[in-house]
Predict the structure.
Amino acid sequence: MNALRAAVAAAAVGVALVLQVSVFPHLAWDGIVPDLCLLVVVGAALTRGPQFAMVLGFGAGVVLDLAPPADHVAGRWALALVLVGYVAGRVRQDVRPSAGTVLATVAASSFVGTSVFALSGLLLGDPALGVPQLLEVIVLALVWDLLLTPLVLPAVMTLFRRLEPDRSLA
């Protein structure tokens, strides 16, 4: 990974993290906020592939785990976003994804990421929520992520495509 791509990826995650923990809690829907860091990882996966997205997902997950007001065992978001990077990165890399493919990828990634985060908390005895409440959280997070996809993903994907146009999708 070259230094410019790393700096831009870190800046994209930083902006997403700041918005996610400072602005979006004021717009929370039943206490659930959209996962902008997840959308950045999905955008990176669709343009740069699974390896880059997994590394970015790990970094984004670690900072999300440690950023206030984190109230969970550290490492849960890191695990979830590494898996999101892998899942989203497995979408065909030789063609530009259609809008339907992008939405399906975001839906699958949101479901996987939020489910891994919720289930790891259940296994670690971390959350104070039961299974029915966890299912509600997963569905609301998925809806939030799908609603913000048209606003976030085009910008993120364009940003990552311009970093190294010879290897990204045309």
Q: What stands out?
A: The chain has a mean pLDDT of 87. Residues 74 and 91 are 29 Å apart (CA to CA). The chain has one domain: 2-165.
